[in-house]
Design goal:
With about 80 residues, the protein is mainly α. It has one domain. Helices cover about 85% and strands about 0% of the residues. It contains 3 helices and no strands. The longest helix has about 35 residues. It is rod-shaped.
Length: about 80
């Protein structure tokens, strides 16, 4: 669970901001005639992949958290009510 949480933080703090900046630079470069549209699309693909990676890490985190709660009996009290 801790590994997934650290991965989410790393993605949020480094990967996604860097990918967003790359998209902006690619768009600016395209608008100035320095990059092709394929360069812009590639930068957008990298950003989309980073966002999907974040979603996957969030899924892993929440699944691990739920499994831990089940193991510790965290849901047993709620089921009895």
């Amino acid at each position: 669970m801790n590994i997934a949480a650290r991965e989410i933080v790393a993605i949020d703090e480094r990967l996604i901001p860097a990918a967003e900046e790359a998209v902006e630079r690619a768009r600016d470069g395209y608008n100035q005639g320095g990059f092709s549209y394929l360069d812009v699309l590639d930068a957008q693909r990298v950003l989309s992949t980073a966002r999907l990676q974040r979603i996957s890490a969030l899924d892993s985190y929440h699944r691990a958290r739920t499994a831990l709660k089940r193991l510790l009996g965290g849901y047993a009290a709620g089921a009895a009510q």
